[in-house]
């Protein structure tokens, strides 16, 4: 349903528009639900994130990253590809203040200090329920991978291989 529209999106919008939209959608609720507020921050143009489904997937990714790192973060979405009930998101993690990500206060501090972490994120998401009640959940993710951590996800989770294109 969203595969071609998402994968072939060639309309670029300033990322601050996405950040404002997501902040309005989740800002207050995130502060109430989590110790660390998840702040979707973006500083560069990237893929057009315009549908409610795309917004929900980005919200889930930011929440996933913030929970695993234990700090507020933002995300510059580079690719959001979908096919059927599957979606793959690839992006650059930024600090909650839109600065460079610093792993030193996270569970990944040692790995980052040894050059084993980057500022990238990859997440695989799947929808369940009918169109009116569609619920997206994270199936797998990789924070700061130095290699293609998702290279076996298509086989492992029976997800469509075409969604994993990050070009």
UniProtKB/TrEMBL annotation:
Reading the lineage from the top rank, the first entry is Bacteria
Name of the protein this chain belongs to: Uncharacterized protein
This protein's species is: Mycobacterium pseudoshottsii
């Amino acid at each position: 349903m969203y595969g071609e529209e998402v994968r072939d999106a060639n309309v670029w919008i300033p990322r601050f528009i996405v950040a404002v939209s997501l902040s309005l959608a989740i800002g207050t609720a995130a502060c109430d639900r989590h110790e660390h507020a998840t702040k979707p921050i973006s500083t560069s143009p990237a893929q057009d994130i315009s549908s409610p489904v795309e917004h929900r997937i980005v919200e889930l990714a930011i929440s996933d990253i913030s929970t695993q790192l234990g700090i507020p973060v933002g995300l510059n979405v580079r690719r959001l590809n979908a096919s059927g009930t599957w979606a793959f998101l690839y992006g650059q993690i930024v600090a909650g203040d839109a600065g460079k990500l610093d792993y030193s206060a996270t569970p990944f501090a040692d790995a980052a200090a040894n050059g084993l972490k980057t500022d990238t994120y990859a997440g695989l998401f799947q929808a369940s329920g009918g169109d009116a009640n569609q619920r997206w959940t994270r199936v797998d993710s990789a924070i700061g991978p130095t290699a293609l951590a998702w290279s076996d996800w298509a086989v492992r989770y029976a997800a469509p291989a075409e969604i994993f294109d990050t070009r």
